[in-house]
Amino acid sequence: MSLRPIVLPTIIGVQSDGRHGHLNQPHHPLTNDMQTQNTRLNDVDVLISGYGPTGATLANLMGKRGYRVLVIDQESAIYDKPRAITADQEVLRVLQEFGVADEVAAASTPHPGTDYVGLQGQVIKRFYPAPPPNALGWEPSWMFVQPDLEAVLRKAVDRQPHVRSLLAHRLIGFEQDPHTVTAQIQRLSDGAPLTVRARYAIAADGASSIVRKQLAAPVEDLAFDEWWLVVDAWISGPIQLPERCVQYCRPSRPGTYIVGPGTLRRWEIKLLPHEDPAHFRDSHEAVWRILGEFTDTRSLTHCRTAVYRFHALVVHDWRHGRVFLAGDAAHQMPPFLGQGLCAGIRDASNLAWKLDAVMRGLSGDHLLDSYTVERKKHVRTVVGHAKSFGLIIGELDVNKARERDRILEQDLRLGRAETIRQRFIPGLESGLLAHKSNGELQTGAGELFIQPWVRQGQGDWQRLDDLTGPRFVVLASSLDTLSALDPESLGIIQAIDGRCVLVQAGTASGHESRDAHATPIFEERDGLLTHWLAAYHAVAVIARPDKYVYGIAQNAHHLRQLLLELRAALIEPAVQGDRDEHG
Asked: What mean pLDDT comes out for the span 274-286?
């Protein structure tokens, strides 16, 4: 089987005047045949509709793998106001794959933690980032300015030789057959039509997704529907503000205070039943008045006001033939867990490696069904948590709020309350994971794998992913475990473009072992993997390209069995039990 991406003719995104479609890139010579009224673009591997964080991440992930990608967006530039403001370590780990995580991290600030404040101003709940060590190699939670983040993502796209972008273009319709998706695109400046044919299309075009509407995809309503006012402002003078984020759980006016990067601050304020959302869209005076219920506005400079109807929605099926939904096109959630952008980035990571595996012939087409299986269940759990926090914050009944305070204060005092933010983000619960004979997940399967700092020989310390890449990796702490792999097991690893890696504490010399497999030896700096394996009484782990654990082996025989099961799952239809979740 081929282990290289299929290369199609070079795509040059063109306008009818022969200029390159990306507004921020130099012009390229015209190489496409053109018709007077309709420009036909060369075939691409992947068409992405929507150039926000999800679409840009997916374009980078696929471009990094060598695929021809066209990404379009109806806007002519990045929206210049902050929207998403919080993200978790998993996002940086995905951005690490295409080389921008350090740049993004340098412009962000660590999340300071959140206090929930009750009726009497007392702390009733705490919600803090995980303490060190940072198991994924990055800050557990961090704050950012979305326009700056998007600019970094788009600059990374500009560096991808096989990716082109068309701004101020809108997808107006599409058709698909068993082999391709043919999309009709309109240039918004003059209405000129363009046509592009792709092997796959991804809708990352937001909550009002044109693609989702054309598909008439059923949507599950998780019963959360509230109007909130969001106000962003810059500190421009002396002001007393909390050091941490605060959830003001007061029935008279529920609200949220968020500490952004630098001098950026955000307030999310629940509108009361008698208030008209349109009034706050039209009146800055009304916005500033309601903000005055939370802080002294005299030292603030207004940045943005938005009135949102917070929803909890999940689309039933995220795959429709060769068309996929991602990000807000597939799910919407209230912001109380700061997971909206994170969920879209996870979608991109999950889908990218599976598209790659199918297009390279490493797996059958059925692998793409696991995208919905895995991501939908994960998102529903996250949405459920965000909804539950929103209900805590937004309670308007004083008696119920008083009882809420009593219960939460008691749980906090007795140590029963979970206070670590990351523990509300689940692992995968179904899909391409190692299962027991009874259909349950094997221990550790579906967990997000750790990322220790490692080095080869006397080289520099690096994060593990930078040395292994986005592929299946078999990691062990003992050479005996890897040496026990038989030719069939080694053949499976080679067939799926996997890699064996030995990670040990205190390894001082040698870039490779002396065994026939020439296994790279990494020394780990902090003993993270050694302790992780010991906690599972395991000798090895198989990590997927998106860094989720496929399975954990208790011995060499178990490792060989896991590899056999992985090969079968990639080649044959999805494991029994996943079909019901997908359907």
From this structure: 92
